[in-house]
Amino acid sequence: MAKKSKKQQQSGGTPATVALAAAGVTYAVHAYDHDPAHPSYGEEAAEAMGVSPERVFKTLVADVDGALTVAVVPVAGQLDLKALAAAVGGKRAAMADPALAERTTGYVRGGISPLGQRKRLPTVLDASASDHATICVSAGRRGLEVELAPEDLAKLTDAVLAPIGRA
Length: 167
Description:
Elements: H1 6-11, H2 15-23, E1 27-31, H3 41-49, E2 57-64, E3 67-74, E4 78-79, H4 81-87, E5 93-95, H5 98-105, E6 123-126, E7 135-141, E8 144-148, H6 150-157, E9 160-162, E10 165-166
Parallel strand pairs: 3-6, 6-9
Antiparallel strand pairs: 1-8, 2-3, 2-5, 4-10, 7-8
């Protein structure tokens, strides 16, 4: 995992929030008590923050033709693997091995952020993000979300916007 300075550790900063602060974009951090028994990390975040599940996005790591790729989709739906592959010019996509996703991003499952990853991966943001002034994504650990403009997220991750989510 990325090393944090003593100041970052004391302030509770994550690589994602450090990246946001360094970029100078406007964002808000939302913390909540994570319940390990909750069946869905994303739905738990939406409920805890009182935000529509269409505005809370989950970060998934997939394998597209042998290359790890990040997909950011609303928690209210699912990832369309065929659409993800097409969005990056690939043929086949499958969910990545969770342990490999954790090692590559530097985050734990349920806390993977599209920001501040250990290794920068190609990223696709569901086009529905553009329907909202702000969206929420993981800030790098379970129980911590960051709210920001979808345009800022796309810019910071060099994301392609494409319709990769389905209801």
